[in-house]
Amino acid sequence: xxxxxxxxxxxxxxxxxxxxxxxxxxxxxxxxxxxxxxxxxxxxxxxxxxxxxxxxxxxxxxxxxxx
Length: 67
Prior knowledge:
Elements: H1 17-27, H2 37-44, H3 48-60
Helix pairs in contact: 2-3
């Protein structure tokens, strides 16, 4: 069974594979703390749609961190 992670900011649980993947991609592969989409956008001072767009871009590039 896959380990479930929660958002370090708001406590959302469980986080999706994409939320875990984008945290690792943007904050470092060795990240131990993960954010939900909205909290990550707030942390990075961008819009949630910007992060969704990056996820799609990384998926199209074949990045294995995303579904």
